[in-house]
TrEMBL record:
It comes from the Bacteria. The keyword Transferase does not apply. The lineage of its organism: Bacteria, Pseudomonadati, Pseudomonadota, Gammaproteobacteria, Alteromonadales. Residues 28-277 form the Fe/B12 periplasmic-binding domain. Residues 1-20 form the signal peptide. Transmembrane segments: none annotated. Keywords: Signal. This is Fe/B12 periplasmic-binding domain-containing protein. InterPro entries: ABC_Transporter_SBP (IPR050902), ABC_transptr_periplasmic_BD (IPR002491), Vit_B12_bind_prot (IPR054828). One of its GO terms (biological process) is cellular response to iron ion.
Length: 284
């Protein structure tokens, strides 16, 4: 049996090892969300990623990174075999029990905590500091801020437009005013007809949508293992968007990730919404 002194020494040594791991620049990173992978690549740290989760598919090189789990949990044997010196987790997207287990194993963990589109530059700067790539990160953060401000200025004070964001068709779901997707709609200068919903991602009925009279229906092309049943909006011509055929499709991979590419999706959506705004303006 180990003496109390020996046990204490071992604990101190282990603690010092973990502390040293946290201090050195990480070279073997596991990124537990697609947006974390994208942001690491954008600052030049992509080659350091040794493991990631399902759906991390951008850039093309990311598809070759070994998978160690996904939304439903992590595969710890695969993860440990990759010998990471840092795990970057998503505060809102990873199981807390998995993260606590990683910490208990002595693996350094830091969080991506973005909940607001304007936090993306802060995320980039944080990753830059972690990886020793501050200058590259600052360049990307400055560009994001510049592009963001440009889009906001372009659509500020434009004529309002009532929009329904069809997050998912079956069951029918949307977004309220506390979500980052709502923020992207606000940038485009339009009104989210379900902004006042009590939950962030409410399940709604067709009758709920009809009662809101949206002028445009936004449909993200979300990927899924099985194609969901689509809504046949043509059955509901009393909805202004249906009557005037004002549907727009947007890229979910761009809009639904806190990455540097998010503004590409926002710019595309804003342009399409503005075309609908122009259409209604000409009818007045």
């Amino acid at each position: 049996m180990l003496s109390k002194f020996t046990t204490l020494c071992m604990l101190l040594i282990a603690s010092s090892f973990v502390h040293a791991q946290q201090k050195k620049t990480p070279e073997r990173i596991i990124a537990l969300a697609p947006h974390i992978v994208e942001n690491l690549y954008s600052i030049g740290a992509g080659e350091r990623i040794v493991g990631t989760v399902e759906h991390a598919d951008y850039p093309i090189a990311a598809k070759e990174i070994p998978r160690i789990g996904g939304f439903h949990g992590l595969q710890f044997e695969k993860l440990l075999a990759l010998n990471p010196d840092l795990v970057i987790a998503w505060k809102s997207g990873n199981k807390e029990t998995d993260i606590e287990k990683l910490k208990a194993l002595g693996i350094p963990v830091v969080y991506s905590v973005a909940k607001d589109i304007k936090q993306v530059p802060k995320e980039l700067l944080k990753l830059g500091k972690l990886t020793g790539l501050e200058s590259q990160a600052k360049k990307q953060a400055d560009k994001f801020n510049e592009d963001y401000n440009s889009i906001v200025a372009r659509y500020k004070n434009k004529a309002p437009l009532d929009v329904f964001y069809q997050l998912w068709p079956s069951p029918l779901m949307t977004i309220n005013g506390k979500t980052w997707i709502h923020q992207t709609l606000a940038i485009c200068g339009v009104r989210n007809v379900f902004a006042d919903a009590t939950t962030e991602y409410p399940q709604i009925s067709l009758e709920n949508v009809i009662a809101k009279h949206p002028q445009v229906i936004v449909i993200p092309n979300e990927r899924a293992a099985e194609e969901p049943q689509k809504v046949n909006w043509q059955l509901w011509p009393e909805v202004p968007a249906v009557k005037h055929q004002q549907y727009i499709e947007v890229n979910a991979d761009l809009l639904h990730r806190f990455s540097t590419r998010m503004l590409t999706g926002v710019k595309d959506m804003c342009g399409k919404l503005h075309a609908s705004r122009t259409y209604y303006g000409k009818r007045q």
